[in-house]
């Protein structure tokens, strides 16, 4: 019927705020090995988002009207979620290294489970 949903990044960073807006919505938490998550984010999402800040990608995004979307997603990723004990956003935690990123992941998982 008329279902809408969000999956993974960046929606997962704002699950709590979305639940406040849509209290009847369901949240499904996928849990994986935190070290593998860190390695995956570092080599995929974070790398892709870094590419969106370099030429010729910036030129292409501007040409297609998508630059503002990627700029906004990038800014949202560095907003520290309420659960972040280190007060770091996701990419900031990844840049700090594996230990900090794993703590970020575990804090997020614990918060969603609570």
Give keywords.
114 residues; mainly alpha
Account of the 3D structure:
The protein is mainly α. It has helices at 15-21, 34-43, 45-51, 57-64, 67-77, 90-96, 98-113. Helix 2 packs parallel to helix 3 (45-51), helix 2 (34-43) crosses helix 7 and helix 6 runs antiparallel to helix 7. The protein is globular and about 45 Å long. The two termini are 30 Å apart.
End-to-end gap: 30 Å
Low-confidence segments, ≥5 residues, pLDDT <50?
none
The total strand number stands at: 0
Q: Number of DSSP helices?
A: 7
Can you write the helix and strand succession as a string? HHHHHHH
General shape: globular
Query: Helical content, roughly?
Result: 55-70%
Question: Average pLDDT, to the nearest integer?
Answer: 90
Q: How many strands, what sense, and barrel or not for the largest sheet?
A: none
């Amino acid at each position: 019927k008329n279902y809408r949903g969000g999956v993974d990044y960046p929606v997962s960073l704002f699950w709590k705020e979305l639940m406040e807006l849509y209290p009847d919505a369901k949240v499904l938490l996928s849990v994986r090995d935190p070290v593998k998550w860190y390695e995956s984010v570092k080599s995929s999402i974070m790398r892709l988002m870094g590419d969106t800040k370099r030429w010729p990608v910036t030129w292409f995004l501007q040409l297609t009207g998508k630059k503002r979307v990627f700029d906004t997603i990038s800014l949202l990723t560095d907003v520290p979620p309420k659960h972040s004990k280190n007060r770091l956003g996701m990419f900031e935690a990844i840049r700090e290294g594996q230990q900090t990123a794993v703590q970020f992941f575990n804090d997020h998982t614990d918060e969603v489970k609570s």
